[in-house]
Amino acid sequence: MAAATPSFESATRGAKSSAALEFLKSSPKKLLINGKWVPSKSGKTFETLNPANEQVLALVAEGDKADVDEAVKHARKAYEDGKWANLSPHARTRFLLKIADLIEQHAEELAELESLDNGKPIFESKNIDIPGAAETFRYYAGFATKIYGETNPSEPTMFNYTLREPVGVCGQIIPWNFPLLMAAWKIAPALACGNVSILKPAEQTPLTALRLGELILESGLPPGVVQIITGFGPGAGSAIAEHPDIDKVAFTGSGEVGKLILKASAGNLKRVSLELGGKSPNIIFPDADMPQAVFGLNQGQVCCAGSRVFVQEGVYDQFTESLSKMAQTLTLGNPLDPNTKMGPLVSKEQHDRVKGYLKTGKEEGAKAMTGGEAGKQESGYFIQPTVFSGVNNQMKIAREEIFGPVASAIKFKDENDVVVQGNDTDYGLAAAVWTKDINRALGIARKLKAGTVWINTYGQIDPMSPFGGYKQSGFGRELGRYAIDLYTQIKSVYAKIG
Ligand code: NAI
Ligand code: MG
Q: How many Å lie between the centroid of ligand 2 and the Cα of residue 350?
């Protein structure tokens, strides 16, 4: 067990969970392959930081192509053995329920690890990420026994039926904004359908996926059913996307990488599902109650963030004024402090990126009514919550995903105008309408080209309801029964009668 780094004390400032600290101290963290923790073949490791103070939390094995090859070899064997795919569905249910229970039993520890590694305020980790991950496993636990085929009215001399079978070895590449939750969205449905998984967490936030790996071993899941390969995008991620013996890749992340994955998948025509970003319209009519949480969760680093705030012209000044006032009440600080409303962004890269957009916004002629700068903290990747007014839908800050606590407020005239402007984007992940007029809300919900539409609320996500994008926000739907389509393939069987 390597010693903790000298900065460990300050890196983990505010942490209360002794289990989380113990987990961090057993660094470097290893890869999970075939039920065992192993170092990367190259022996290389990388650092994962606490973005609130830029100190090292732990060293993590840097997996690359050689490790992915090894993981695929064992995953393939575990799949073909049938020890998971041919297990009774009732038994699969029990494993997934057990994993959900273990997540709940370790909720405190997982929440602290998530906030330390990602920077999200502890109230979010505790109330959203960790319970959401447990609920996702529980929801798909129920599905293992409800994956149906059909019988078809073929010729009278034929008995024709369909079977839904697993796809096989699934590569699952996830981002850093909801690390444990995204791991659950990927692993739970894949396993419910009888697949095996190779999960690659984001290099910025590998910790909770690794702790999940330990809990999965504790659940007694057969070795080889879940592998966890930490590492970088080019390296571990690209090796998964290109691998000739992986049957399916599920990816959540940037559009740019989504396109690379789709290209790489052509080698063996693996199935692909992509959940990419968004630039979601958040539409406010004068009769709406002041929407809460315009900045969303996780410092605005949310794929479905309502970052284009459309306000009807009569109330634009008044609305942007009160939005700015609200933004000023969001206390920045140590994510582990329960009073903190907003933590740092996840990384220096993300911090630089968002600062770049703040500069661009000003150059384009938008006005930062509040914020517009990095946070004033001594260290850490903080950004002041920012409200840009005077934005039009053609500006870069209205077209590109900023992924930070930045709202771009755009004026609209009427219903038609806002539908046209709202849909004038490359993306289509989500949208929201705020109004007391239900006819107007339902009418607009139909016209918006987005995978999810919220009315008088924002960001509600339930494992039972599908989630995914129109246009360049990706394809394939996760969650709900739709994830069963992603993780099964259909066989039609004809039997001659008589
Ligand atoms: P990214 O798309 O590079 O990272 C997401 C995942 O893909 C990580 O696990 C990464 O290691 C992996 N990856 C990177 N390059 C890869 C490759 N060539 N082959 C296979 N896997 C690869 O996203 P990044 O750079 O961290 O963030 C950039 C922007 O992407 C953000 O500012 C945001 O706009 C968007 N984004 C969207 C997310 C969403 O939820 N849809 C989540 C994260 C980022
Ligand atoms: Mg980190």
A: 12
